[in-house]
């Protein structure tokens, strides 16, 4: 039996697209989700192991690790996709904001990588950890300061874990900018955002999936950050 892939935040937006991709490839999937909705039930009906987790709660990680170990003795990959787009403007409690951003984007991946490494090393092939970071990890963001700092921390973890776990596990980051708009994004916002990249398009989730596919199929790429930003760094 194939070793499953763990995808955090695998029930919505980009995470859901990644989940569906691996289902179509007939690869077992374990996902985490925060709030139960119809999509989760549909995924469960397709054989996906769905585990409810609130990463704001540090104790929840130990429970998640226990459930994963009970479900499978191996993992093919971990894709750290769970994220929160909270910001200083919307959250005046800056103490809590910073702690929450670091908890979700840095501490949780760190703890999961440490706890689940034996399952990755037990895989019959070279395993992978993929951190989904963000374009802003490279340049910062005056509107999302804590968020950008936490994603930069996650990016740095890729290099440390790559050195720690080689050659059994490859560890890399994918740093996207715009991938898909939200349904509520208005025309003015969409036009402004599209102009920020050289390519000027809404690329869709397949761009992230293709990047993940490249990393998982490679036997040589580790400790690197793959930018998926449409040349935005040159604007």
From TrEMBL:
Keywords associated with the record: NADP, One-carbon metabolism, Oxidoreductase
GO MF term (any one): dihydrofolate reductase activity
Keyword ATP-binding attributed: no
Enzyme Commission number, as recorded: 1.5.1.3, 1.5.1.50
Record's keyword annotation contains Signal: no
InterPro entries, A to Z: NAD(P)-bd_dom_sf, Sc_DH/Rdtase_CS, SDR_fam
Catalytic reactions on record: 7,8-dihydromonapterin + NADPH + H(+) = 5,6,7,8-tetrahydromonapterin + NADP(+); (6S)-5,6,7,8-tetrahydrofolate + NADP(+) = 7,8-dihydrofolate + NADPH + H(+)
Class of this enzyme: oxidoreductase
GO biological process annotation, one example: one-carbon metabolic process
Sequence similarity: Belongs to the short-chain dehydrogenases/reductases (SDR) family. FolM subfamily.
Record's function text: Catalyzes the reduction of dihydromonapterin to tetrahydromonapterin. Also has lower activity with dihydrofolate.
Name of this protein: Dihydromonapterin reductase
Organism from which the protein derives: Pseudoalteromonas luteoviolacea
Organism ancestry: Bacteria, Pseudomonadati, Pseudomonadota, Gammaproteobacteria, Alteromonadales
